[in-house]
Amino acid sequence: MYTKNFVNPCPDWATALLNGFSQVLLLRNPFCGLCCLLALLLTAPNLVGGALLGALAGLLTAQRRGYERADRQAGLYSYNGVLIGILIAALLPWSAIVPPLIIAAGGLSSILTHQWRKRGGKLLVAYTAPFVLLGWGTLLMTEPMPALFTEANPLYALLRGVGQIFLLDNPLAGLLIVIGMLVANPYAALWALLGSAIGGGVALLAGEAQAAWMGLYGFNAALAALAFSRQGERFWVTLLAIALALLLQPLFNQMPIAGLTAPFVTACWLMHVGSHLLQLSQRRNVDRLHS
């Protein structure tokens, strides 16, 4: 029910905020969210304020606009705010204008998420699309970050592929996030690691060694794996989602700005549309057999 009254606050704000962090990984688990927050705190403390401010702005906006209480509590209106808050904090030096900018972006991400959930249906799921759109706008207004040289270490690259979901390139961050995922959903966590590994391997085969060691080909593949790695799901479906995300990444790499999580979002949309078209085709065939 959509109302404009400031009613029905979340019963537990801390849980709602932590769920917002875990929902970046398509999981709902406060401990997982806490591990993600610790990953930021221990490896990039300068980004913690942006992440929390973005999450809080998204949650408050959802509450002010009367979005479903259960969805707010689940973190569904906070996770895009987490990501845009991290991105803005990473790109801009802290000044008087940065907190209001993060609050505005976090609030707008909540509104975009709500509209996407209303109009996108089961085919064009919101995922991190609001973050991508707001992130592209942010990147267009800021200077690109300089590329860093990273040592060749397959284990570190595997963990960076997970950490880069939160724009973190420290292996410790990836390890903490993996621990959180293992507690929340061990099956999904293993698929996320497999997606990161496949992404890194593809980058190496394509001659993108530095991108591989930085985990830049791992995070979209890991997210695609998380989106389709539900218990009982056929394994080839998850592998196809990973493959699509990796096939799309070079296309988004041609953009003048970073593609962020656009390859993951687009791959998921293609998977949903393809599944829908396949089901329609099967129904038509069944109807023909019975006619």
Automatic annotation (TrEMBL):
UniProt topology in membrane: Multi-pass membrane protein
GO molecular function annotation: urea transmembrane transporter activity
Site positions (Important for channel permeability): 261
Keywords: Cell membrane, Membrane, Transmembrane, Transmembrane helix
Gene3D superfamilies (UniProt xref): Ammonium transporter AmtB like domains (1.10.3430.10)
Regions that span the bilayer: 31-62, 123-142, 162-183, 211-228, 235-252, 258-278
Cell location: Cell membrane
Signal peptide boundaries: none
Domain of life: Bacteria
GO cellular component: plasma membrane
Family to which the UniProt record says this protein belongs: Belongs to the urea transporter family.
PANTHER family from the UniProt entry: UREA TRANSPORTER
Protein name: Urea transporter
Species the sequence originates in: Pseudomonas guariconensis
